[in-house]
Amino acid sequence: MSLFDLRGQTALVTGARKGIGFAMASTLAECGADIIAVSSNQGADDELAARVKGFGRSFSHYTIDLRVREETKQLVAELGNRQIDILINNAGIANRAEVLDHTDEQWDEILEIDLSAPFILSRDIAKGMAARQYGKIIFTASMWTFLGGKNVISYTAAKSALGGLVRGLSNELLPLGIRVNGIAPGFIETDINNRVRQDKARFEFLTSRIPIGRWGKPEDLSGTTLFLASKASDYVSGVVIPVDGGYLAN
Questions:
Q1: For tag attachment on the chain, is the N or C end more exposed, with fewer CB atoms within 10 Å?
Q2: Hey, what domains does the chain have and what are their CATH numbers?
């Protein structure tokens, strides 16, 4: 079990207040990591804070809107030289629109939070990791990293680019002791999928295509997150691991 022991390490998780980010941060805290939570509405005394402290770990938070480039840079400045051993770029949004109706504003907004902000945080936080010759960077990618999707063109473009970012960062950072990987969730019961889940016909059709027979829950990402954040994955870098109930293989 020492392979999965995160005691003495600090993890920064974006989009940590709920959903997948909440599950990721909770798992890391349970296995010993102190947590820095980043969200546009993260609170000091919310459910995540209580859970992390319940595991005996320290909790701190930053309320930052990663859609705004200046706020992302502000976060980097406020972090200063604070030691971060694990960076999880999880925050993301999706705007559903047919491509002919997809606006420039929707495109810019999604690429900023889903691609540019993760790059900026990875680049700048990796400097401290490189100085210590150790770090883990994990991106929440998507099935649309591998597939085309429908009515989510900017989201698909951003998540596809994350796959390239994982590979490119790994090539440059691995010699500096930093492993870079991604997780590609399938259909997960989170707020980002509420619109689809409320469409009964669409929901049933998609569920029928998932070999495991159900949508995933945020906690289904926990094991892969822990693996990639821990010493157990020290020989793994540059890959995006699907956690999708077998969807991509179907």
A1: N
A2: 2-249 (3.40.50.720)
Residue whose pair of structure tokens reads 């709920």 in the numeric block: 18
Q: CA–CA distance from 163 to each of 18, 98, 143, 156 (Å)?
A: 24, 24, 11, 11
Buried b (16+ CB within 10 A) or exposed e, 25-55: bbbbbbbbbbbbbbbbebeeebebbebbeeb
Cα gap 59→34, rounded to integer Å: 6
Q: Is 155 a catalytic residue?
A: yes
**So what's the pLDDT on residue 43?**
63
Q: What is the pLDDT of residues 86-136, one digit of tens each?
A: 999 999 998 889 999 999 999 999 999 999 999 999 999 999 999 999 999
Choose, from 134, 155, 235, 247, the residue flagged as catalytic.
155
The whole-angstrom separation of Cα 8 and Cα 217 is: 28
Query: Is the per-residue pLDDT at 23 higher than 90?
Result: yes
Q: How far apart are CA 159 and CA 163, in angstroms?
A: 7
Tokens of 111: 């690429």
